[in-house]
Amino acid sequence: MVMNTLTGNILPKKASAVSVAGAPTSIAQKLKTTRKEYGLTQQQVADLAGVSDRTVRKLEQGEASPSLKALLAVAATLGLEVQVVLP
């Protein structure tokens, strides 16, 4: 467990996995749902992940072509593990 210093919420080290093989909208939905479960704003996630709030917003809308670094940072902040599934 990890304490979120911005909200005082306890975040798990790894809540679940997000598959890159999934549709961008399913990845976006998982990020958004998890963020809301922890009571975090997009700005708080951005600050914790070291990315812009615009990046978080675009990721959650499934509109971004984020760098792998940005996706991993946001996912890790939310306690998610990104898995690449090859066919």
Structural description of this entry:
Helix 2 (42-49) crosses helix 3. The chain is globular and about 35 Å long. The chain has 4 helices and 4 strands. It has 87 residues and is α+β, with helices and mostly antiparallel strands. Keywords: DNA-binding.
Relative helix content: 40-55%
**Highest-level CATH class of the domain at 27-78:** Mainly Alpha
Give the integer mean of the pLDDT values. 80
Q: Uncertain regions: pLDDT < 50 for 5+ in a row?
A: none
Largest sheet strand order = 1-2
Quaternary state of the chains? single chain
**E-strand count:** 4
How widely separated are the two ends?
33 Å
- CATH topology label of the domain at 27-78: 434 Repressor (Amino-terminal Domain)
Structural class: alpha+beta
Assign an overall shape: globular
Per DSSP, the total helix count is 4
Cα radius of gyration in angstroms: 12 Å
CATH architecture of the domain at 27-78: Orthogonal Bundle
Strand fraction:
5-15%
CATH superfamily of the domain at 27-78: lambda repressor-like DNA-binding domains
Helix-strand topology string: EEEHHHHE
Largest sheet: 2 strands, antiparallel
Name the descriptors.
two-stranded parallel ribbon; alpha+beta; DNA binding; 87 residues; DNA-binding; 4 strands; DNA-binding transcription factor activity; 434 Repressor (Amino-terminal Domain); Lambda_DNA-bd_dom_sf
